[in-house]
Prior knowledge:
It comes from Tetrahymena thermophila (strain SB210). This protein is an alpha/beta fold. It has a domain at 17-204 and 240-258: TIM Barrel (Alpha-Beta Barrel). 38% of the residues lie in helices and 14% in strands. It has eleven helices and ten strands. The strands form two sheets. The chain has an eight-stranded parallel sheet with strand order 3-4-5-6-7-8-9-10. The protein has a two-stranded antiparallel ribbon with strand order 1-2. The longest helix has 14 residues, at 31-44. It is globular and about 50 Å long. The N and C termini lie far apart (47 Å). The mean pLDDT is 91.
Amino acid sequence: MKTTKLAQTVLLSDGNKIPIIGLGTFLTTNKDQMTDLIRTALNVGYRHFDTAKVYENEVYIGEAFQQIFSEGVYKREDIFLVSKIMSNKNEVVSDVIRQTLKDLQVEYLDLLYLHWSFTPPSDQLEWNHKPVHQVWAELEEVQKKGQTKSLGVSNFNVQGLVDLLSYAKIKPVSLQVELHVFLQQNRLIEFCKRANIHVTAYSPLARYTEVINNQVLNNIAKKYGVPVTQILLAFLIQQGISVIPKTEKSFRLKENFDAINITLEQNDVEELKKLDINHRTIQPATFQPFQFIPIFD
Length: 297
C-alpha cells in the first residue's frame, strides 16, 4: 500500500528535486531479494534509489521496478533513479548509458554521476583513464539527449571540482561522497554550498562497531529514544545533505527512513560535530590497483 509519508526533497541548481533520503544498493546483488527490497522501500516512503554500473546489479533493479510498475501502484515518475559510470578510455559514454538504461529498463535517469575522477589501471597496470574534461563533454551530450535529467560527480575533492567548474558547460548539481560523523568534510561541504552543488552522503552510518561503541552517540540516541543509526542520519539530513544508507533488512529500511522525523537540538549537534576525526571507511588507497593514486589528498 502506498504510504502518504514521503521524505522532503532538496531543490537542485538545475530545478530538479532530489529526495533527502534514498536507498543505497552497493553490494546488494541478490536477484531474488531485490524486488521485495525495493517494494518494501517504496511502501515505507523511499523514492530515491542509488546504483552504479560497477555494482553489477542494474539488471536486477530494472527487473524489480518493472515487476512493481506492472502492479499499478507505482510508476516510473514516482522514482528518483540514480546511477554512476567510470571514466574508462576504452568506453564511449553514450554506449555505456545506453546499456545502463537497457539494464534498468527505463528511458532516462534522474541523476547520473561520474563515479570517480579517474579510472584505475588494470591488473597489468595498463592505464585506462580518460580525462575528466573529455568524459564530462560526453555526459553533457547524454543530458542534452534527455537520457538523464541531472549530472553530478562522486568522490571528487575541492581541487577536482574547481577544475571541472572552470570548463563545464553544464555544471554538476550534486556531489556524492563518503560523509558521516567521523568524516564531516566541512571544507568540502562549504565549497559545495558556495558553488551551489548539493551533497549526498554515502556510508552515512560509518562502521557499525565504531558507532555502537561510541558513548556520545549512545547518550544522544538514548535522549531521543531512537536507535543510534537515526541520530547519524538526522545529523546529516538536518544540514540539508541527502543520505543513502544501504540495507537488505526490511525493518532497517523503516528504521533508517524514520530519521526524517528527528530534529536534533543545537547542543547535541555541537556534540556530534566534535566526533569528526577525518576517518574514512572507504579508502581507495588500500584497494588494488588504486593504491598508488592519492585521490583525496
